[in-house]
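Support request from a user on the community tier.

User writes: "When I paste my structure tokens into the form, the page sometimes reloads and wipes my input. The last time it worked, I copied everything first. Here is what I submitted, just in case something in the input itself triggers the reload:"
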């Protein structure tokens, strides 16, 4: 066997020729398969998806903040339960007391107050919304107001609607009697008027009066 001498250059050529760095023809992606147009469309889709995704997240965040802002927390005053003193503070048959915070009048009605502007037979606490059912004016209690020879009425200053101590309409353009509010009394006699629970006034106003232990009778 003749001794063949391989030069360093030839040895490199042989080594490079045997390297398997080429992709098989079947697996290779044809150069024409991925065009610049495809790349452009795919980029556009990506940008569009990013835009709408970002907008959606921003809108959701804004709606969440708005709902959080509107959610009622620690609601006080009108529209919520309002403390109205203790039962022992309400003398039976006395003039109604005004509660500006809750926009109501509160009285301990005496069933024996049978005069025309009296209790209408009601016995106990009755809370009346001071807003006139006609056009919304504030209705004051007027102890000295005389209507048909009887003194002591609710009398609206706007158009003259007149109501008994139980809020029953007896005169004027108001379409109904004064509205009433829900009352609760706890075990210690503390009164709460729920100004968010309003019932339209009617001839049954006297039956809505609330009796409670400790209420002066
Ligand atoms: S608003 Fe009270 S009578 Fe008109």
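"...and here is what came back when it finally went through:"
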């Amino acid at each position: 066997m003749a001794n063949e001498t391989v030069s360093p250059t030839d040895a490199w050529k042989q080594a490079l020729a045997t390297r398997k760095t080429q992709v098989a023809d079947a697996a290779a992606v044809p150069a024409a398969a991925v065009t610049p147009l495809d790349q452009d469309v795919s980029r556009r889709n990506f940008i569009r998806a990013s835009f709408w995704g970002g907008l959606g997240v921003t809108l959701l965040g804004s709606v969440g903040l708005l709902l959080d802002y509107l959610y009622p927390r620690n609601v006080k005053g009108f529209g919520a339960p309002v403390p109205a003193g203790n039962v022992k503070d309400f003398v039976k048959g006395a003039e109604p007391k005004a509660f500006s915070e809750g926009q109501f009048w509160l009285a301990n009605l005496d069933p024996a107050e049978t005069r025309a502007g009296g209790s209408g037979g009601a016995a106990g606490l009755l809370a009346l919304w001071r807003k006139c059912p006609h056009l919304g004016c504030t209705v004051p209690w007027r102890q000295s107001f005389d209507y048909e020879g009887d003194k002591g009425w609710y009398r609206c200053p706007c158009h003259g609607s007149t109501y008994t101590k139980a809020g029953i309409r007896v005169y004027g353009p108001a379409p109904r009697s004064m509205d009433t509010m829900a009352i609760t009394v706890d075990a210690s006699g503390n009164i709460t008027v729920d100004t968010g629970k309003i019932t339209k006034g009617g001839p049954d106003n006297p039956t809505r009066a609330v009796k409670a232990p400790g209420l002066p009778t």
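Agent notes: The reload is a front-end session timeout and is unrelated to the input. The pocket of FE2/S2 (inorganic) cluster is lined by residues 132, 134-135, 137, 156, 158-161, 172-174 (CB under 6 Å). The longest strand covers residues 190-199. Escalated to web team.
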